[in-house]
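explain this chain.
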Amino acid sequence: MPNDVEGIASAIEQISKDVSDSFGGLSEEQLNWKPAPESWSVGQCLDHLIKSNEEFFPELEAIASGTRKNSLWQNWSPLSGIAGAFLVSTLKRDGQKVKTNQKMTPPSDIPADIIERFEKHQKEFTERIHAAQNADWRKVVLTSPFVKIMTYRMDVGLKALIEHEKRHVRQAKRVVAEEEFPKIGKQTATVSV
């Protein structure tokens, strides 16, 4: 079965378009507004996605260069078959909170250029996936950079990254839909959650 490079690239492009359409007209104040102190702003959701995806860049580079080999744990881990599917299904359910790794927690104030940085990041992410397209994604096993015991096949791992992006974009849309969301400055397109 061939790698679904175009399917993954198309999903990333669609997310980028959704982010631009939904949040591209927001002011810096709106991008940083939070409904509660413990909640994330739109900008924080996007910053978190950039940081999270970048954790996989070294692996994608090694896969693209042909130098990467699965470790002994990755080859024998009983989790590889089920962990990825579990992760994908968990990410699709918004009601279930997942604790964020401290390293991936975004700063409080996000610069106004977050939309442009996110779009640039998405293009770079797609390029790295294209560069790794010749590897057998069903045989390459990735280890989560966040939970070192968790392993999953690359094909499922990339689907999990897409679902992770969609989850946080939905979270950001819920922020904009809040009644108290500031309506001053630039305005955003109507957001459907």
Q: What stands out?
A: The longest helix spans residues 154-177. Residues 5-177 form a domain with the Four Helix Bundle (Hemerythrin (Met), subunit A) fold (CATH 1.20.120.450). Helices lie at 5-23, 28-32, 42-54, 57-65, 72-76, 80-92, 114-131, 154-177.
